[in-house]
Amino acid sequence: MLADTTDKQTYLPNNFPPCSATADNGIFYVIRLFRSQISPFLLFFVFCCYFSCLYSTNLVAQNTQQFVGNKLLELVGKRQNQAEIKDFLTYCGIQASISTATQTYYPQVGIMIEWTGEMVEKITFCNQDTEYKGLLFNKFPNKLFYNLQFGDNKNSVVRKMGKPSVVHDQTFIYHLIEGDISIEFKKNIQLVSLAYRRCKEGNCNDGYGIYLSRNGDIYKGNWKQGKRHGQGTCTYANGEMYEGLWQHDQFNGRGVFTAKDGKVQKGLWEEGNFIGEIDFKKNLLFELLGKHKGNEQVRLLTENYSKSFEVRQQSFDNQEYLFSNGKLLMHFDEYGFVQRMDVSLAGIGDFAPSLTKYFQKETQQKQILFLLGEPDEKKELWKDGGKYALWIYTDSVHKQVFYFNPKKQLQSINVSLVNSAKVLQQKAKGTCIKGNCKNGYGEVITAFGRYRGYFKNEMFNGEGTLFFTNGGTYKGHFKNNAKSGYGEHRWTDGSVYKGNWTANTRSGKGKMTYANKDRYEGNWKNDKRQGYGIAKYSNGDMYIGQWRQDQHNGKGTLNLKEGQKLVGLWQKGQLVMEAPAAPRKKEK
User: Fold this and answer.
1) Degrees to nearest 5, angle at CA 29 with 25 and 30
2) What are φ and ψ of residue 293, in 5° steps?
3) Residues 447, 461: one domain?
4) Which of 225, 463, 502, 521 has its CB 3.0 to 4.6 Å from that of 507, i.e. a possible disulfide?
5) Is the model's pTM score more than 0.70?
6) How far is CA 382 from the centre of its chain?
7) What are the tens digits of pLDDT across the range 331-356?
8) CB 157 within 8 A of CB 171
9) Residue 213: CATH number of its domain
10) Cβ distance 180 to 124 under 8 Å?
């Protein structure tokens, strides 16, 4: 509770002057006491009290002048035992404060102080009737720094102080030499905070800067949107040190960590976890699946495995990286995550050790059967006049496909993710730049683009818009970071889908316009046309009927542009049983 500042009852005459009385009035009052019949001892006591009060009044007046305008900027960073802070606390009114372990509140003068130990970390100045943590603060009565006034709106502040370093919802933040100034608005300025500037040199928001944390850690390096990002060195107060690459305030990339006991971890880091030295021939294919193309491991592979690679743009903004040696093909989905990796016959010697078992170029079907057992699925593929076999092995996370030539020799290996939607759900965290990115409406920047919309449990949930870095957009409903419900996706190749989604796949009813101007309206399942649907092709043909796995399958009619109709039973895109012609009506 606030301390009781009510004056206690005194036995002095009831016309005892207040401290605000002038010196002349005080002298006249003392003369009147001399003329009255009062003991010398009481007279001396009154005389001392008066001049003590007068001195205190003058001191308060001096302190009031000391803590106005830009003189306030000199307070942060100072310690409690320094003269300026002692005077400041006297001005605030030590007896009228409420304190916690790290904060002191002075509601009567509209001031809040935050402490780091005995050092003033931050001072907040309040506007009239500001409510904070259940306390009602008066308006800070003195002038603010940089000619700010509580009646200023955002435009007025920009005219006085220039463009803010950071804008976060209804708050302007300025990173200045004197300190970090935060201005919180309702309609006009509501709170003004001055914090100790821990960025000692440079730009600790976007650029290179040296930063001293509250606990004594020192970071020297690159920053992005107020987080350590890029090359940097952090020397910790406990004696530990990390030197290397950072991403979103975490060790990420090549780096060296030295523990306080001298133990060294040198190699690759990912999201703060030590991965070790990258070995392109050990677990590489499985490790890279689900990584973003901006990931350090992906970058190292593209830089070190081959002299160059060819980027091939696929439909729906997917990409493929084909390495110049022809041994490896990396497939990225529209979000930029590695979804599939193909190892050719020439590359099996390089990458087979990273698979479940070790394989050689000359591996036969019977050897695969011995090592892995019966496949979960077998398929056949006719190519160049010969029959190729596909053996598929699937677990809860990965799918491996082995291709065999007509001589039953292993030709290539394909490794992919079973459920790529889970990758997005796990990797979508980014930097919140506006609003409430935990539970509410906000805007966040991620590795694959910018999302603006509703959040729940720090994930995209509800209506929102996702702007992909490659230029595509999705506007619609999300669930746990994935497209779910109704939404519209526009790809940069001109393709557009409007309809229902489930876990990032087109599922349910929807309309699709392809880059080549083909159009389809009907049912979908797992990104494939399945069920009843109508396709109008750009060449003038039209198919009406059943689909399965993106192909005509079941009863259907293909109307050719020349006027011919193919009606019957379809299987894998081929008409296998033509419906009998309708009987002619008998002539009367």
Assistant:
1) 120
2) -65, -15
3) yes
4) 502
5) no
6) 47
7) 988 888 888 889 888 887 777 665 55
8) no
9) 2.20.110.10
10) no
